[in-house]
Design brief:
It contains twelve helices and 17 strands. With about 425 residues, the chain is an alpha+beta fold.
């Protein structure tokens, strides 16, 4: 059954919920620092559960701590429709990245309750653990275990900068469930997210219909030179690891530009040793992030980096080690789910365009085990992973209304 175009969510309630969640783990510049499996993450989870309880949902928690809040359907044998994202943030994160998707899913349930509308399929709102990967690398760990990309033991052994293991922290904050990870079967999964890029705002488009997700490759490079005094070491006698990193940084930029307009590349994390004002760096460890929606182009960028970095290091006399520390193949989302999102935007009269997600999301892993699609709304200046991240209440409402229609139509309204 197609639902009526006048069926919309309560936008004020949604916005108020987002602002209330933002009070937990506040940042220092207006955003949030609610990193995964911290005490503030536990508080955010508890608030979300309290809202789910009030909405009459039953909560399940798996061994990765992922939360599944279920609204029953009229058919006990029908596969559930899942919707959600994540509540954890970057250390200097915004109030909307991930949170909009989780609380938008909750708002769907609240609005169905208000209208006393039943669906044949159950609807389950999800909060995936450790999507950001900033404390425990890599990103999207729990959804990766759910999809069979990672093993549970491997995920539990991930360590943060202090050597604390993910599995230990999951138990410490009290959110290690007993449900086997990946045991659930889905009719479909939908994720709402801010774009984290500038396209929708620049083109004044309300809704991004996400057709594909970019592939990603993370390569960690260790460049080794010789520490020596910056003032007394003649230029011809220097073996400067910092210079090697600088030249490789330029190489990364050139490689990405060569595959414009869709390729991107940058060095996002680096450690320089000994990191002293008057010592030429003896070692630099840094991570290269390449992304593109085509697998063969990612492979080309990797290959050219390996060849070019080796030439740079040979010229300077540096040692070089390259290790692949993360990545996933490009994603093509389910055509029927993508169509449901597109039709919802058209039904509601929102401007929309197909878009490729430049960031990784839990939906990228779940697409391996269930039909999946994403909805995106604009964000100011395309800024994300920054405390200045901002969206408007109208953008949040439009994205959630499209999510509402796509999810509820897939879950089949019962007359």
């Amino acid at each position: 059954m197609t639902i009526s175009s006048n069926m919309k969510i309560n936008s004020e309630r949604l916005w108020d919920s987002i602002m209330e969640m933002a009070q937990i783990g506040p940042g220092i510049a207006g955003g949030n620092n609610r990193q995964t499996l911290t005490d503030d993450d536990a508080k955010g989870r508890a608030l979300f559960q309290s809202w789910c309880d009030a909405a009459g949902l039953t909560m399940g928690v798996d061994q990765m701590g992922t939360m599944f809040a279920r609204r029953e359907g009229t058919d006990p044998d029908a596969l559930p429709v899942y919707v959600g994202s994540h509540l954890d943030t970057q250390p200097t994160g915004g109030k909307y990245d991930g949170v909009l998707g989780v609380l938008g899913g909750l708002e769907i349930i609240r609005q169905l309750n208000d209208m006393n509308v039943k669906t044949r399929h159950p609807i389950v709102v999800v909060n995936w653990t450790n999507e950001e990967g900033t404390r425990f690398a890599p990103a999207m760990v729990a959804s990766g275990v759910f999809a069979g990309v990672h093993t549970l033991d491997w995920a539990y052994d991930r360590e943060d900068a202090d050597g604390i293991k993910l599995g230990d922290e999951l138990k410490r904050i009290g959110w290690c469930g007993e449900e086997p990870v990946g045991a659930r079967k889905m009719k479909a999964f939908f994720e709402l997210h801010i774009e984290q890029g500038p396209i929708l705002e620049k083109e004044n488009v309300d809704i991004g219909v996400v057709s594909h997700g970019q592939g990603l490759s993370w390569l960690q490079l260790t460049v080794t030179g010789k520490e020596s005094h910056t003032g007394s070491t003649p230029m011809p006698m220097r073996v400067n690891a910092g210079l090697g990193m600088a030249k490789i940084t330029q190489l990364v930029d050139e490689i990405a530009w060569s595959h414009k307009p869709d390729a991107v590349g940058a060095i996002g994390h680096c450690d320089v040793y000994p990191n002293s004002r008057n010592i030429i760096p003896g070692k630099c460890v840094f991570t290269v992030d390449f992304r593109h929606p085509q697998k063969d182009i990612i492979a080309d960028m990797e290959s050219r980096l390996r060849t070019g970095a080796a030439e740079i290091c040979d010229e300077i006399g540096l040692g070089l080690e390259i290790e692949k520390v993360g990545g996933f193949d490009p994603v093509a989302f389910d055509e029927s789910c993508v169509s449901a999102v597109r039709k919802a935007a058209e039904r509601l009269g929102y401007s929309h365009r197909d878009i490729v997600s430049g960031a990784g999301h839990d939906a990228c892993w779940i697409n391996r085990v269930a039909p999946t699609a994403m909805v995106m709304c604009p964000c100011v200046d395309g800024l994300s992973h920054n405390e200045a991240e901002e969206i408007t209440p109208g953008w949040a409402a439009a994205g959630t209304n499209v999510l509402f229609h796509a999810v509820v139509e897939t879950a089949e309204v019962v007359e």
